[in-house]
Every structure is written in C-alpha cells, then in structure tokens.
Amino acid sequence: MPTAPPHTERTTSERSQVGNVEITPENAATRLRLLAEASEALASSLDAKESLRRLARVVVPSLADACVVDLVEGDGLRRLTVTERDSRRSPRILPGGLLPEVDSSAATLAKVLRGAGPMVMTDFGVSDPDDALLAAQRALYRVLSARTALIVPMRMRRQTLGALTFIRRDPDASFDEQEQVLAADLGHRAGLALDNARLYALQQHTSEQLQRSLLPDLAGLGHLQLLARYVPAREEAEVGGDWYDAFRLPDQSVILAIGDVVGHDLEAAVRMGQLRNMLRALAYDSEDHPAGVMSRLDKVMQGLTRIELVTAVVARVETPPGRPWRLHWSNAGHPPPLLAQQNGRVLLLDGGLAPVLGVDPDIRRENASVSLPSGSTLLLYTDGLIERPGEDIGRGLTRLRQHAAALAREPLSVFRDELLIRMSDDEQYDDVAIVALRTP
C-alpha cells in the first residue's frame, strides 16, 4: 500500500477506531491494577494539572516508555508534562511549554483534538516547515526515540480538553487492541477529572467573588481610622461564611460586627449576605444596645431563614466629643475582641459572652463595656486567624496577643497587614476576616 506524503504524520498504520474487545484473564488483573492507580492519581488533588502529572508517572513504564500530556488553551496547546523512562528504567520529566495553534492539517495530535478519536502511529514521516505543530511533534518523537505513538483525547461534555500520548520505543511492541481500549479509558477518566477541576475552580471563584461583593465598603466611615480585610482560604478549600460590617447609626455612634456562618460553600456565602443585611436593618431601626440587637437577630434568623448556626460579635462604639471613646459589645460564641494599647498592654475582651446564634432565641444576652484609651487598637477577627488543625486555640490566642503587642505603635495599615502575615501559615485552611479600629 502507498505511504503517506512525507510532510504528514499519517501512515498506513494510523487507525481512527478502537473496536470492542474481550479482555483476557491474563491481562485483566494488570489492567484493573493500572486503572486503580490511575484513578487514585487523578483523584489525589483538586489541582488538575498536578493530577495529570501524577497520571503520567503512573503509566510510565507500565503502559508506555513515555507519556505526554497536552492541554487546550484557547487556540493553542500547553504541553503540561513529558514523562519518560530513561535507560535505567527510571522515570524522568522533560520540560513542557506552549505549542503552536491547533491549525495543523496533518499532525495526528491536531486530528485527535478535532474529534478523530484514538489514533496509532508507527511511521512519523518528515517535518513540514510550514506546519509548526507537525514540526514540534516530529521533534518530540525524535527526542523520545519513538517507534509507536498512541494518542487519545481527553474529552468531556462534547469538548476536547486535551490529549494523552503514549509512546513506545521498541518497534516490535505495538499497542494491541486491549491496550488501546485501556488508553482510551485513561483519556476519558483524565477528561472527567480535568472537567471536574475546572467546574470546581469556577464555583470557588464565583463564591469568592460573591462573598467579596457582599462585604461592605468602609469609605463612608472615613472619619474613623478603620480598616478591614478578607483573606480566602488557600489550598483546596472552599469559600467560607466569614463576614464583617461597619456602619453609622443616626446618633452618630458606629456599629462594628464580625461573624462566621457555619458552612464552607456558596450557600454559606449567600446566607452571610442575608445575615449582614438583617443586622443592619435591626440595628439601624432600633438603635438598641448590642445585646438587644443580637437577641432580635437570633429570633429573626430562626424564624425567617434557614441559617443554622452563626458566631458573631456586635459592638457599638460611642465617640462623644471631649470624652474617652467607649465600646459596648455582645458576643455569640465568637473569639473575643482584642484591645492593644500603646503601652504594650493587650486585653482579650471576653465579657458579654453567650452561646452562638441559632440555638435558642430566648437565651439571655448581656452587654459588656470598656473605655478605649487614646491611640489603642480594637481588633475583631474570625477564628481562621488563630486556629490551626490539631492545636489548642489557647496557643493561637497567645500568639495573637504577642504579635498585637509588638505592633501596637505601628500605623494601623501596618498593624493589620503585618498581623496577617505573622499569624498566617503555609496552608491557611480557613477564611480570615478582620476589622481594626484605631482611636484618635
């Protein structure tokens, strides 16, 4: 039979279909073991790229001498990883990078990405200088000493997300039909993992943006030295229900509030917005003391919403002219506010404490009060600032007091930013919200 023109990769051994085959007992155990290991690699992380790198390391050398992972990015491709077995049968990783646009008419990889399905190659022809992708593929095959290549798509929701290329160096070791079925299955599983990771990232981004949009703009309180910050959780964590608020009442006093709605998902962020709006209405309409506002919020929350449990601190700052500022607050199961004075003294304001919102709307709640010395810093924060997995919360509070004391004389922006840096770790498992107020 005639061979394909030298500028193409298509050969007489290129096949576009994988038929239905019966798995023999001898190969069934090997296939199942490889599929199990591949599934574990793909499920090991919500970082899709890292999962695909692990998949490549699983299939080399059990299925192929090399595995290439290419991802579609816009009109082009990104070569995520090239994992190969060297002469000592040890896996090694070659550098990847961007590839030319997928507009090649001859490159088998481009055909697979356009929907041709799994394809096998045994004769790679000669590069065409006018076909950038074909030239890049030919160079890769030459570096890997490829004699046989099997390319399968990573496809999901009728969209091709990328491709896996399995390469063998032995000219007598072609991919039989069972191995082609196995490779196609791996491509399907990789596509599913990649699609799930992208959907998760989209949901996480949407939740985070929603949460940020629901947090208040403090520009209307420019007469106060008041700063806030929301920091989302890092590695593989969903958005939380952390929230804060600050607004002026008709009598010119100011309400500060912070809390945490139970849950780590989009619904928690939505409920956080509902709760903040209810608090604003109740506090502004009644001008009640914080304990009264907290009790009314508890009743309305349990009567009109599906919000279950909430921790919160509601505080009222009175700023009478010519007299010391005064703070009144009520605490519903939340970490205590902190007051850092310029002389280095740091207080945890543990008064006014009662159970969380959502337990019993008839719980009696009390106010606590304290004078705010000149130049002192009041800090409200959520538990993500002080809690670490497996660590007693008392250690986190001690760490917070030490850092706050060291930063008490710094400008408020430095106090806030440096405190977040010193209290954070590499993981940051939970969201963090803080509100810092500096008295004149």
UniProtKB/TrEMBL annotation:
Membrane-traversing stretches: none
Residues in domain GAF? 47-204
Tell me the organism: Streptomyces halstedii
InterPro entries cross-referenced by the UniProt entry: Bact_Sigma-Reg, GAF, GAF-like_dom_sf, PPM-type-like_dom_sf, PPM-type_phosphatase-like_dom
Tell me which PANTHER family the record gives: STAGE II SPORULATION PROTEIN E, STAGE II SPORULATION PROTEIN E-RELATED
Q: Which residues are in the PPM-type phosphatase domain?
A: 224-439
- What name does this protein carry? SpoIIE family protein phosphatase
Keyword terms: Hydrolase
Q: Which top-level group of life is the source organism from?
A: Bacteria
